[in-house]
Amino acid sequence: MTEHNIKSVFEFYKDRIKPIYAGVVAEDNTLPVELLFEIHAAFDHIARFFARGEPESICAEKAYAHLKRSALDAFKLRLKNYHSEYKNLQKYDLQLIDNGKFFAELIVNHREIVRMAKLGRQNEFKQNIDEAFEAWDNVHLLIDKFYSSTMDLEKLEWSRAVSKHYSIKYVLTSNAVTFGGSVLGTLLVTWLLLS
Q1: In Å, how far from its chain's centre is CA 13?
Q2: DSSP string across 15-68
Q3: Nearby residues of 1 by Cβ (< 8 Å), 6 or more positions away
Q4: I want to staple 93 with a disulfide (CB 3.0 to 4.6 A). Which of 32, 36, 131, 163 is the partner?
Q5: What is the domain count for the chain?
Q6: Are residues 80 and 10 in the same domain?
């Protein structure tokens, strides 16, 4: 296990934690209070080093642990937001986009997100926090990929327009066939009754 110091805690915060928080804030335009509590706890441990002279390694380790816990919470919030967006995509006929390639990539990405999230949860349950963090970090990166490659509004709106066109065409054709069948049936019954 790596021994941490105050500098490594701040580097971890800057390089690993802030990008995760940025994802949560970008999706909800807020930083949830659970994450703020963990940040507060982390900085409280750092303050103990400076204000009370407690050992740097102990303060840094505790601060690092709080930041990691906040990241695990942030990952789960990102996953929740992702699932909402993924569900919203069901209103589009995604197989129309890029001759089905778009939909195939979306499914592959979704399966990998779910697989990595399961792995992250299993590692948390086993108290393998470092492994859990790595799995969840992969989920975070896959969700970023989802937003950058999938949420192409131009393609989605094109898909909706084409689907709507086909839906209208289907309804009109279906109504015409139903009406034509009714008229034909009425004429046939009338002819049979009059014969």
Answers
A1: 22
A2: IIIHHHHHHHHHHHSS--HHHHHHHHHHHHHHHIIIII---HHHHHHHHHHHHH
A3: none
A4: 163
A5: 2
A6: yes
First to last CA, the chain: 96
Range from 5-9, 30-34, 77-81 carrying the lowest mean pLDDT: 30-34
CB neighbours of residue 185 within 10 Å: 10
Domain check: are 41 and 127 in the same one?
yes
* AA letter at 145: K
Q: Are residues 17 and 40 in the same domain?
A: yes
Q: Round to whole Å and give the CA distance between 122 and 132.
A: 8
Count the Cβ atoms, other than its own, within 10 Å of residue 32: 15
Task: Note whether residue 1 is domain-resident.
Answer: no
Q: Residue 2 belongs to what H/E stretch?
A: none
Do 57 and 146 lie in a common domain? yes
pTM equals 0.72
Arithmetic mean of pLDDT, 85-98: 76
d(CA 59, CA 4) in angstroms, rounded, equals 9
In which domain, by residue range, is 161 found? Answer: 155-195
The arithmetic mean of pLDDT across residues 134-163, rounded, is 76
In a domain, 100, yes or no: yes
Helices marked H in 89-152: 101-125, 129-149
